[in-house]
Amino acid sequence: MRKLKVLRFIGIVTGIGCMIWVFIAAQLSSNNWTVSNSDISFEYSENQLVIDETKVQDLVETFLVQQSDSAVLGMDLQLLETSLESLPYVAEAQVYWNLNNTLVVELRAIQARAKILMEQSKFLLTQEGAVLPAPSFAQIDLPICTGIHDSDEAATTKIALDVIDASKCYNENGIAQIHFDDKKIIITPRGISHNVSVNRDKRLGTDLDKLAAYYAASTEEELAEIRHLDLRFKNQVITTVQ
After folding, report:
1. Residue 39 forms beta bridges with which residues?
2. What's the mean pLDDT when you consider all of the chain?
3. pTM above 0.70?
4. The domain made up of 34-109 is a member of CATH 3.10.20
5. Looking at the domain covering 112-241, what would its CATH class be?
6. b/e map of 15-47 (b: 16 or more CB within 10 Å)?
7. Inter-residue contact 119 to 100 (CB < 8 Å)
8. 194-225: per-residue pLDDT in tens?
9. Which segments of the chain belong to CATH 3.40.50.11690?
């Protein structure tokens, strides 16, 4: 008897749930649950405006125009997300609708790590090591990498940047330019009157440790007189003064 009551209760609950779902589906299919406008927002890292916002707007508007109707259930929002994530510098896209008849589009941008000047063109190196053409409208202040010959070499600069960032010599905003020669790297810090030469191989980390020790042992007055530091030689720091 108890089992029969339980089964009857389950049947009643299931029936009510089905009725509610049918009601919601009917409402969603009605004109009260359509998309009539869009709300697009962008999340950038450190004011790095790297996404072409005009292209995003055009893509969303085209998507809405191409829908056979504006009913929410008839829209393939996953398709729009995929299209948005294929745009340059878009790391992630989320698309959903709200109760105000609005298609909400939220985009998170890929974070750039350095500018690369190569073949008379500008590129950006991302945190993941990808090399992408720099948008002409990009508002971004990053270290500039020069002396790079092709995209493969540009991608490998991430290794050197990892070592430099891990050192105790400069903070993330402390470098203005990094020039890559065949066997050496020349670092130009921000707000300092000298530049630094280090080896472009496995000795780079050791050179930077030596540089950190040199900075720690020197006064600001002593460093102000230096124009160049060369740390490529074992147990030596060669200085050029003004």
Report:
1. 104
2. 83
3. yes
4. yes
5. alpha beta
6. eeeeeeeeeeeeeeeeeebbbeebebeeebeee
7. no
8. 999 999 999 999 999 999 999 999 888 888 89
9. 112-241
